[in-house]
Automatic annotation (TrEMBL):
<comment type="similarity">
    <text>Belongs to the DEAD box helicase family.</text>
</comment>
<dbReference type="InterPro" id="IPR014001">
    <property type="entry name" value="Helicase_ATP-bd"/>
</dbReference>
<keyword id="KW-0067">ATP-binding</keyword>
<feature type="domain" description="Helicase ATP-binding">
    <location>
        <begin position="32"/>
        <end position="205"/>
    </location>
</feature>
<dbReference type="InterPro" id="IPR050079">
    <property type="entry name" value="DEAD_box_RNA_helicase"/>
</dbReference>
<dbReference type="GO" id="GO:0003676">
    <property type="term" value="F:nucleic acid binding"/>
</dbReference>
<protein>
    <recommendedName>
        <fullName>DEAD-box ATP-dependent RNA helicase RhpA</fullName>
        <ecNumber>3.6.4.13</ecNumber>
    </recommendedName>
</protein>
<dbReference type="InterPro" id="IPR000629">
    <property type="entry name" value="RNA-helicase_DEAD-box_CS"/>
</dbReference>
<keyword id="KW-0963">Cytoplasm</keyword>
<keyword id="KW-0547">Nucleotide-binding</keyword>
<dbReference type="InterPro" id="IPR001650">
    <property type="entry name" value="Helicase_C-like"/>
</dbReference>
<feature type="short sequence motif" description="Q motif">
    <location>
        <begin position="1"/>
        <end position="29"/>
    </location>
</feature>
<keyword id="KW-0347">Helicase</keyword>
<dbReference type="GO" id="GO:0009266">
    <property type="term" value="P:response to temperature stimulus"/>
</dbReference>
<feature type="domain" description="DEAD-box RNA helicase Q">
    <location>
        <begin position="1"/>
        <end position="29"/>
    </location>
</feature>
<dbReference type="InterPro" id="IPR027417">
    <property type="entry name" value="P-loop_NTPase"/>
</dbReference>
<dbReference type="GO" id="GO:0005524">
    <property type="term" value="F:ATP binding"/>
</dbReference>
Length: 466
């Protein structure tokens, strides 16, 4: 099937060709004609499958006719995090280049005043995180009665972050006569319930998990000792021997991200970091350095990197084996994109056996073990003692306040008393995050949706005419 068979306008076909796409991905081939026919859709698909274009492209054609009115957006896209919202905005900018649609991005941390002004002018596409949208709604700055198209993206992630009550409330504010598209990587019962309640006769489209079927990713388990300095040595060895062009290195905790990045830099690597304690502009600046090739290694936490579309990543390293098998699929999906080949190394310490087992069960494949000789590394003068200092061990065993997963494994280390608590940002899910509260030892911790203060990069300006 070609893009020309999907029913998109000539302008969009040109945009797609300009983007370098030769054929639609499976989710695009199935979803685009149905969206254009105004059907509700349940898309069971992950990032990396081309799902964003599967709703953005037909939305542009549908919205091309008609005009926006003050405070009454014509369509609404809900995203769980600011990064994903920003990424969808980028997609609108790219695919909507030949159209004149106005767009607003409502995300926490950006001045309310600017967002209100944008809404006053009227927007065709509103992209929002649920918390900030509810805030503005309750202040009377926004009316959803003119919103005839709703996209709920990454619904399972919304569930993890406790946003489902907000989404239910938002759905009731939209007109009953509307088109609803729901995308989720998995369909746990609460998402199924949500879909049953708010979608009309939806067409369900399921596409294969890219990572579990992506034969372009060579996956290896690297047995390692539990000590972080040993893991870092092994990492340096692989980074040097494997002609790593670009790598994302995932850690389970923010502290590990910081420490590892610092250590890599000290060893002369061009690395950067991205985690939930960083201000948004900082995170975007690091990403930009990575995208521009000024750094070629990005040390990341799951939440900060989730769903981010970074092209041409040759290697993914799981410096820590992920606690949740789903995270493994997400992490290694950062490489081997668009037909390119990639390599994914997962460090597995003796304590990680169960995590590895879960990963292999989920992906249905046994991952090759890589038995490597002991690392012989030239120590930098004066560094040896520091490398082995006990402080390093303490860092590795950081408190759960620093962990970036919603659920803590049963054997998670206990909180250190002196660990600073994460301050709840303003677009924290309202009404408390019951699910998180139940599962986490330190219930007040917010999802990784940290504050945004400071200048907004160009592509994130509150209103963009695309
Ligand atoms: P997504 O799943 O929406 O995060 O998209 C993943 C990546 O696939 C993005 O970099 C898109 O630009 C790219 N992409 C989307 N559609 C196509 C296509 N038909 N052909 C090639 N790449 C695509």
């Amino acid at each position: 099937m070609s893009f020309a068979d999907l029913g998109l306008s000539d302008e969009l076909l040109k945009t797609v060709t300009d983007a370098g796409y030769t054929e639609p991905t499976p989710i695009q081939a199935s979803a685009i004609p149905s969206v254009l026919m105004m059907r509700d859709i349940i898309g069971i698909a992950q990032t990396g499958t081309g799902k964003t274009a599967s709703f953005v492209l037909p939305m542009i054609d549908i919205l091309a006719h008609g005009r926006s009115r003050a405070r009454m957006p014509r369509s609404l896209i809900l995203e769980p995090t600011r990064e994903l919202a920003a990424q969808v905005a980028e997609n609108f900018e790219k695919y909507g280049a030949n159209h004149k649609l106005s767009m607003a991005l409502l995300i926490g941390g950006v001045s309310m005043g600017d967002q209100v002004k944008a809404l006053e002018k009227g927007v065709d596409v509103l992209i929002a995180t649920p918390g900030r949208l509810m805030d503005l709604f309750q202040r009377g700055n926004i009316l959803l009665t003119g919103c005839s198209m709703l996209v709920i993206d990454e619904a399972d992630r919304m569930l993890d972050m406790g946003f489902i009550p907000d989404i239910e409330e938002i759905c009731t504010k939209l007109p009953k006569q509307r088109q609803t598209l729901l995308f989720s990587a998995t369909m746990p019962p609460p998402i199924k319930k949500l879909a049953d309640k708010f979608l009309e006769n939806p067409k369900t489209i399921e596409v294969a998990r890219p990572a579990s079927t992506n034969i372009n990713i060579a996956q290896f388990v690297v047995p390692v000792a539990a000590q972080s300095f040993e893991k870092r040595k092994r990492l340096r060895q692989l980074l040097k021997q494997d002609e790593v062009r670009t790598a994302i290195i995932f850690c389970n905790r923010k502290t590990t991200v910081r420490e590892l990045n610092k250590s890599l830099k000290q060893h002369g690597f061009r690395s950067g970091e991205i985690h939930g304690d960083m201000e948004q502009p900082q995170r975007l600046a690091e990403l930009d350095l990575f995208k521009r090739g000024e750094i070629n290694i990005l040390v990341a936490s799951d939440v900060a990197a989730r769903g981010l579309d970074i092209k041409g990543v040759s290697h993914v390293f799981n410096f820590d084996a992920p606690w949740h098998p789903d995270d493994y699929v997400h992490r290694i999906g950062r490489t081997g994109r668009g037909g390119a080949t990639g390599v994914a190394y997962t460090f597995v310490a003796p304590d990680d056996a169960e995590n590895l087992d879960n990963i292999e069960k989920l992906t249905g494949q046994k991952i090759d073990r890589l038995e490597l000789p002991a690392v012989v590394e030239e120590e930098r003068p004066g560094r040896r003692r520091r490398e082995r200092a006990p402080r390093e061990e303490t860092v590795e065993m950081a408190a759960p306040a620093d962990a970036e997963v919603e659920a803590q494994p049963a054997r998670a280390p206990r909180p250190r008393r002196d660990e600073p608590r994460f301050e709840a940002p303003r677009d924290e899910p309202r009404g408390g995050d019951r699910r998180r509260d139940r599962r986490r030892p330190n219930a007040g911790e917010a999802p990784d949706d940290g504050g945004w203060n400071g200048p907004i990069p160009d592509f994130l300006k509150v209103t963009l005419t695309v």
